[in-house]
Amino acid sequence: MAAKTPTRWALLIGVDYYFPGTERPINLRSLNGCVEDVTAAEALLKNRGVQHIVKLTASKATGKEGDPAIKEEDESLWPTRDNVIRELGRIFNSTEKGDLLYIHYSGHGMRRDRMGEPSDRSEGNQLSGAALVMTDVRRGGAYLTAYELGVWVKRMVKENNLRVTVILDSCYSGRGLRDEEDTTNLTARTPEEVDQTQLQSDRDSLVQALGLDDVNNDHGLATRDPEMRKSWLDNPTGCTVVTACGVNEKAHETHFGETSAPHGVLTHWILKTLCKYAPDAWLPTCGRIRDTVIGEIAKMVPLVSQTPTIHGQENHEFFGQHSLPRRPICKVIKHDLERDVVVLNIGRAQGVSLNAVYDVFSFGKDGEWDLRWVSSSSQAAEQVRVTKVFNFRCEAVPITTKENRSLALDEGSSAVLRTWALPSDYPVQLDDTVSDMSPSIRQTLDMYLRQTPGLFLLEGETTQEARFLVWLDTDRRFRIADENGSPLSRVPAIPMDDGDKNESPKSGVAKLASVLRHLARYLSVRDLRNRDPRTSLALGNFRCTVTNSDGEDVPKGPSGCYEVRESEVFYIEIKNVRLMRPVYVNLVCTAASWQIMKLNRLDESTGTEVWASEPYVHEMNMIIPETQKEDCQEGVYDLIKAFVYTGPHPPSWDELTLPKLPVDASAIAFHSTSDPVEPIISNLQKREGSFREPGPPLPSHAPEKWGVLEFWIHTTPK
C-alpha cells in the first residue's frame, strides 16, 4: 500500500501594528514589512498546493487623527496570544499522523530575562527567555513566549507525529537598537528594552502552558521566574526552527527594489530561494536554505549583518517529509578516456579511503550551482568507486559500463560522496545480552554495516579485536561501548523494537547501524594525520600557543590537555616561523558531541593564508549545551585540529565535516546507499576588503606538503 500523502498546514503571523497602551513600560515602534512577509509566504504556499492556511495579521492604517491605527476589523484574526493559541489548538485537533505544519512569525521579538554578557548564553539555550511580541501587549495582552510555543509544537510532534518547520523572523537578543536611518533604509525588529513586567495575562498563559507540558508540569512555579523556563524549541526533535539572527544580532527589514513594501531579510531570501523550485519538486533542506540566505546576506554587507541560525534537524527537507544527508561537493578534474578513470580533487588528507563511492553530476561546470539541487536519486548521475588514493587527489572507476551511462564524466563535473569508506577495519561485537537477536536480524545489521567498507559485524570465534561493543540495557535499548568496554558518552540509547519491522530503515537495527557508521567516520577523521615523510610538513615550522584574554598561557592539566572553563575566552595562535612561502590553515573541531565542524569563516573553504610575518589567531569560547551538563560534571574533551598546507593549489577541507549525533534516538535517520543526497553548495562571495593582498603565486610544480597540529581542550562547567 502506498504511503499516505501528508496534509500540509500553515499558521502565518505578521505584526506591523502595535496598539498603544500603558500596561507595560516599553517602546514598540510599528514595523512595515511583517504583514508583507506572511502575505508573500501565503502566496508561495498556495502555489505549492497548501490548502490549510491561517493568517493572523495587524496592518498599519491611518486613524481619524492621522495617527497609526490597525487596518483589520476582525479581531479574531489579530495576532494576539489568545488567537495564536486558538489556532494551534485547532490544528492540533485536526491533524493526522505524519502531517506537515509550517509556522512563520514576522514581528518584534523581546527578551523576558536579562541575558548578561554574550558568553553567558549557552549553546542550545538561546530561545529560552525570549518571546514573540503580540499586537496587544502594551494594553495588557500576553506575550507568546518561546516556552509556550515550544510546549504546543512539542505536543504536535510527540502526540500527533507532525513534522514542524518554524520560521522566526524577529530578534530575541534584547540588545538591538531601533534604527531607521535613511542612509541604510534598514529597520531592526527588536526593541531596546528587556521587559520583565509580569501581568495577569502572562501568569494565566504560563499556567495554561504548564498544564500541557509533560516535563515542566509544576504549577507552583507559575509566579517564580516564569519566563526563564527552557523552551523545547532550543533543541527540538521532529522540528526545525530557523531564526533570523544570532543571539547578539539584530533582524532587519528593508526594501529590495522589487516592490514598494519592505520585507524581512530572512523571509525575503527564504522565499526567493524557494521560488526557484517547481510546485511539485522536493525542496532543499533547512540547512541548505540557511546556507543560501547567509550567502545572500554576505553580499549585503555592510548594510546588513545578521546570521540565521538553526535549532533542530538541519538535514530535513524544508516543510517536507524527507531527511537527506548533506555532503560537500568536489570536482572531476580529469577523465582518462583510455583507462576510463576519473580523477577527483580530494584525497587522503580529506578523509578519502579506498572503495568510497561518489555520485557524479553534470551540474556545476559553469558555476551555476546555486540553482541546482539533487532532489531525487533518479536524476541523471553516475557512480564511481575510489581505487587509488593520493594526498589531495583520488582515482575512481565508473560502476556502470560506457554503454549504459546516462551522462559523460566530463572534466568540471561535480561529485558528491555517496558512501564513506574507512581507512582501516572497525569491527563491531555483540555481547551476550543480544543473544536472543534472531539470525535474520543479525544478518540485517551486518548488511547495513557493510554498506560502509571497513565496518562489519564480528561473528563466531575470531582473534580480531572489536572497535565497538554493543549490548542491550534493561530497557532493551542498544548501547555502544569502545573497545575497552567503556560506554561512549553522549551516544543515544536506541530502542531495539521501535514499532517497525527490523528490516525497515526506521527500525532500531537500522538506527544502530547509522550511529555506528557515524562514530566510525568521526574516529577515522579524529585520527587523521600525515604519516608520509615525503609530503609531511614539519611541525617544527610552527610555533603554537594557547592564551587567555589577559595574554597569559592557558595551563595544561596532567593529561596534557589545555584546561579552560566554560564560556572562558581563549586564543589559539599558530605562527609560521620558518617557511618563506604562504601556509593555509584550516581549523577543525572534533567535538565531544560527535560533530566535526570547520572553524574558519564560511568564505574561507581553502583556509586562511598565513605568511611568516602574520600569525593565525582564532578566538575560542567553549560551551557545554544545557542538555548535556548533567552528564558532564567532570567536563568534556574536544580536539581542535589545524590542517596546514603549502603548495600551489590550496584544497578545500569541507569533506571532513560531520553533523552532530542526535541525542534522541527518535531523531536518528538511516540513509541507505540508494537514498538521495543533497550537495552542500557554497555561494558565499568573498567580502570586499576581507582578505590581505596575495603574495607572489607559487609555481604550479611547487611541492604540496601538509600536516596536522592538535590542541586537546578540556572544558569544565562554570
From TrEMBL:
| Residues covered by the Peptidase C14 caspase domain | 7-278
Q: Give one GO term, molecular function aspect.
A: cysteine-type endopeptidase activity
Task: Supply the source organism for this entry.
Answer: Aspergillus felis
Instruction: Provide the GO biological process annotations.
Output: proteolysis
Hydrolase among keywords:
yes
Q: Note the InterPro entries from the entry.
A: Metacaspase (IPR050452), Pept_C14_caspase (IPR011600)
Q: Which family does it belong to?
A: Belongs to the peptidase C14B family.
Protein name per the record: Peptidase C14 caspase domain-containing protein
Q: Which GO terms describe its cellular component?
A: cytoplasm
What Pfam family is a match for this entry? Answer: Peptidase_C14
Keyword Hydrolase carried by entry: yes
Gene3D superfamilies per record? 3.40.50.1460
Q: Which domain of life is it from?
A: Eukaryota
Keyword set for this entry?
Hydrolase
